[in-house]
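Example 9 (inverse folding). The structure is encoded as follows.
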């Protein structure tokens, strides 16, 4: 695991849509989330809280963490479905 980089954002977005869309059984998994851009918006909020998951040097997924005072949570967490 490492920090997500700006040059990872497009691929991370593809993986996020593909993983959630596949899980939901959509005919077109890439249509999941519509025009909403979860990856870039969360990355822009705090790049240090955006993480890349790699397998054999290739981006395989991402995760984002958020701290709201005394509450912390993570997501969306995505892993390439293949």
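The amino acid assigned to each position is listed next.
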């Amino acid at each position: 695991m490492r920090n997500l980089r700006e040059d990872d954002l497009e691929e991370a977005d593809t993986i996020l849509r593909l993983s959630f869309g596949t899980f939901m059984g959509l005919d077109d998994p890439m249509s999941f989330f519509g025009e909403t851009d979860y990856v870039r918006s969360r990355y822009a909020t705090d790049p240090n809280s955006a993480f890349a998951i790699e397998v054999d040097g290739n981006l395989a997924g991402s995760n984002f963490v958020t701290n709201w005072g005394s509450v912390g949570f993570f997501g969306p967490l995505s892993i390439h479905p293949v």
